[in-house]
Every structure is written in C-alpha cells, then in structure tokens.
C-alpha cells in the first residue's frame, strides 16, 4: 500500500492525489491479470482507478483513498499489423509514437498524435478520445478505432466493433466507450486504423500582424480547396513563452504565427492554393509559384523547404512553451467552431485584462481546439511548486469555459473531464442527458467501482 502520494502513480500530469491518499498499485502483464484484478475488486467492492501512462491533464487517473490503481503500462504488445486491411491490433500500454515507429517499415503510420505522443499510451488516448496536431485532416482518436477489447467491472472480457471499415450491427459500443475515461470498462486492446505514409510533406509558416489576422487566415483556408494535415495557431504571448523557455527568438511584437502542414500527392498545387488563400486573407499577394517566400506586406508567408527547420518549428509548437516554472499556471482545453477563433482569442485577452493575469493561447486551429494558459508570477517567498493556485486563476478559467460555451463550443476538446472539469458538466449537458449517462453507468458498472468521481 502507498500511504503517501507516489511521484509516479499518485496522479496524472496535472492533478495529484490528496496528501495521505492510500492505494494499492497493480501492474498486470496480460489481459488475464486485468480480469483477475477486476474480479477481486468486484468481490470486495474496491474502487479501481485505471491508468495509462499518466500523461493526462484533467485528473482522470488520480487515485482515491482505498482504491486499486490499475496500470496498463505493461500491456505493450503490437499483436498484428495488416497492411491489406490497413489495421493494427495493439494492447493498451503501447506508447503512441512507438506504434507509428513500428508501422514505418511497412509504409504506414497511426494518425492520432497528441503532443504527448512520446509519453501517452493508446489505451489512455482511447479513454480520453485524444486529439493532436493532425486532427485537422485525420480526425481525433475515435476516427481511427474500429474495435475494442475491454474488461468489464466484474472481470468479463468483451470485444466490440469489427476490423472492417463498415459495420452497423447492434449499438455502437466501441464509440460509446471511446472517451468514457475508464468509467464504463477498462480498455486492454484495440483494433486501430493505419494509414499509408504520405508521399510528401511540406510546412508553410505564415506570420500575421495580429492574432485576428491569423484567425482570418484559418477562415481563408476553410474557403479554399486545401485541407491541411495540421494547422496550428500561436499567439504573440505563446511565442514569447517559447522564447523564454528555449531562446528560439520567434516572437516579433504582437504578431501571431499560423503553422500549416500539407501532405500527400500534388504537394506543389496544394502549396500554391494555400499561399493564395493566406495571401488573400492578408491582402493582395504574389502566390510565390511552387515555393519559396511569398506574401503581401502585412502577412509573411514562408515555405519551410529545410526539413530540419520545419521539424524545429513543430517541436516548438509541441513543447516549446515549457512548464511555466516561476509562475502559477493553469492550462485549459476548450473547443469552439473554428470560424469563431478570432472571437475566442479576443475573449481570452479580455479575461486576462479583467482578472489582472497573463494569458496566452495556442490552438489546433484546423478544428477549433484552444489551449489557453492563465498565469501569475510566483512570489519569491512562495517558491513551492505544489502550492495551491491563486483563486483568481480558477475564476478566470470559469469565465473562459462559460465564454467558450457561449460561442457554441465545449468545455473540453481533447483532455477529457476527469476531476478538473467535473464542476462544469451541468453547463453543457442537460438534466436528461446526465440522467441517461448515469443509467448507462449503472448498466456497465452497477457498483460504481470504475474510476468513481471522474468524467460523469
């Protein structure tokens, strides 16, 4: 038994357990071990908190007192790769990036790629319906999962879905379980869709004088025939954060950056049409032909022909903002219709002014998912990184979530609900919806042992 929070298993990446929380850690090596654990929990009435790699950001894997923490990290087999049916069968503990590395020699890749791809597991991604940079073209995790192997609360092994592209037999339990955060069943394996590696990739960087201009660039892409694989927006404060953390020197006043990846056949034609669309968003432009630097006076458009430079920019987007050391920092995850990006960034700036805090935001602009950061400098006499966040940050987050809903959005784009967003569920879901979801919980988990207090 762990009587003090374990630095590895006592929470997820953002939400630790309460001091003094006791839990039993179980690390099964196979599906039978998961079944045996759940049978024991069912017989003894012991709560079970499932855990992937612990990279979550909403408290979905945070232990409760007296629980079993069931870690799936040792279920790491890639059981099958079938390039003809374009599927792979993988166990829940397989690290996301490792799957694509295993597929590469076969000429394939796995499309979902959260920023934590080098850390997060397939099972955890399925539990939260994780997204990532390439959602703009390939969709979130649910678009890449055909079937699941799950263990129910009483230890029963259940297989859902199929390995064919089409299938409408019975209710779609696969899609119901994706995003359920371990509250209905424990994912132990999945049949996932794999895709051929693109014949070409190209990164285009557009720098706009303002974040509103960059949002207009996203709208221009939506009106064009181009469908980028990834389309990321970084506001001026996020670029400053990157400079502070990495020394990259990418911030330029109030300018914002739109980072776009194209892939597939016809890359030259895609690039031409993208430059034309972005140039039109900023003013008259030379389309620049097949590549090179081009753009009007108020928007700089560069085609990053150097692969190393392009990858450097993508790595800055994934991890360049850093941990926020020296600050109280609260990261958020909301999604809105992508046509409302300019409004959302304006709201974030206004909330910062009203609450006297610093705000920044990056966005998966291609699908309207924003990751705002709300922060305050940490006083020199309070250096403890585990100190509670100042209430003003929570108040600002509450305003942000309510404004996202008013824009037609949702309280969580890809991080899940866990415990961190539980108090906002009633803002988005009707009484009838909540009641129906509770009845589903009763059907799957009559004793309410699976991840209690999370998601639902």
Any chance you could write out the topology, listing elements then pairs?
Elements: E1 23-26, H1 31-44, E2 48-51, E3 67-71, E4 78-82, E5 87-91, H2 96-103, E6 108-109, H3 122-128, H4 135-138, E7 145-151, E8 157-161, H5 173-177, E9 186-193, E10 195-196, E11 201-208, H6 211-223, E12 230-234, H7 236-246, E13 256-263, H8 267-282, E14 300-304, H9 307-319, E15 327-331, E16 334-335, H10 341-355, E17 358-364, E18 369-377, H11 391-406, H12 425-428, H13 431-444
Parallel strand pairs: 1-3, 2-3
Antiparallel strand pairs: 4-5, 5-9, 6-10, 7-8, 7-9, 11-13, 11-14, 12-13, 12-17, 15-18, 16-18, 17-18
CATH class annotation of the largest domain: Alpha Beta
How many individual domains?
3
Helical content band: 25-40%
Q: Remind me, CATH topology of the largest domain?
A: Uridine Diphospho-n-acetylenolpyruvylglucosamine Reductase, domain 3
Number of strands: 18
Rg for CA atoms:
22 Å
Largest sheet, if any? 8 strands, antiparallel
SS-based class: alpha+beta
Task: Give the CATH architecture of the largest domain.
Answer: 2-Layer Sandwich
Fraction in beta strands: 15-25%
Q: What is the first-to-last residue Cα distance?
A: 27 Å
Number of helices: 13
Mean pLDDT: 92
């Amino acid at each position: 038994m762990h009587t003090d929070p374990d630095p590895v298993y006592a929470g997820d990446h953002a939400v630790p357990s309460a001091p003094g929380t006791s839990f039993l850690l179980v690390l099964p090596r196979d599906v039978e071990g998961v079944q045996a654990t759940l049978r024991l929990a069912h017989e003894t009435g012991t709560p079970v908190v499932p855990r992937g790699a612990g990279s979550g950001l909403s408290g979905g894997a945070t232990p409760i007192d007296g629980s079993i923490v069931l870690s799936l990290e040792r279920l790491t087999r890639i059981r099958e790769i079938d390039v003809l049916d374009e599927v792979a069968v993988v166990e829940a503990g397989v690290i996301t990036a490792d799957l694509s590395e295993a597929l590469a020699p076969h000429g394939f890749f796995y499309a979902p790629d959260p920023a934590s791809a080098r850390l997060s597991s397939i099972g955890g991604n399925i539990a939260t319906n994780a997204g990532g940079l390439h959602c703009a073209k390939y969709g979130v995790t649910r678009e890449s999962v055909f079937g699941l192997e799950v263990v129910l609360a009483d230890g029963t092994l259940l297989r859902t879905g199929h390995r064919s592209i089409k299938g409408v037999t019975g209710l779609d339990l696969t899609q119901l379980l994706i995003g359920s955060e371990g509250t209905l069943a424990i994912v132990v394996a999945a049949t996932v869709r794999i895709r051929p590696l693109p014949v070409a990739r190209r990164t285009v960087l557009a720098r706009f004088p303002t974040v509103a201009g960059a949002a207009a660039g996203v709208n221009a892409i939506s009106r064009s025939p181009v469908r980028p694989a990834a389309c990321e927006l970084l506001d001026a404060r996020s670029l400053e954060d990157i400079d502070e953390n990495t020394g990259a020197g990418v911030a330029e006043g109030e300018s914002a950056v739109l980072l776009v990846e194209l892939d597939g056949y016809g890359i030259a034609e895609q690039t031409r049409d993208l430059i034309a669309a972005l140039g039109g968003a900023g003013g008259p432009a030379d389309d620049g032909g097949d590549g090179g630097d081009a753009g009007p006076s108020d928007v700089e458009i560069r085609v990053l022909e150097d692969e190393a430079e392009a990858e450097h920019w993508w790595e800055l987007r994934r991890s360049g903002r850093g941990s926020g050391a020296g600050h109280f920092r609260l990261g958020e995850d909301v999604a809105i219709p992508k046509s409302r990006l300019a409004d959302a960034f304006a709201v974030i700036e206004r909330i910062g002014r009203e609450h006297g805090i610093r705000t920044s935001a990056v966005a998966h602009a291609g699908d309207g998912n924003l990751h705002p950061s709300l922060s305050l400098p940490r006083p020199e006499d309070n250096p403890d990184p585990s100190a509670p966040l100042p209430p003003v940050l929570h108040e600002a987050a509450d305003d942000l979530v309510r404004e996202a809903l008013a824009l037609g959005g949702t309280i969580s784009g890809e991080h899940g609900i866990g415990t961190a967003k539980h108090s906002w569920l009633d803002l988005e879901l009707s009484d009838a919806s909540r009641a129906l979801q509770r009845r589903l919980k009763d059907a799957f988990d009559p004793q309410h042992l699976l991840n209690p207090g999370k998601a639902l």
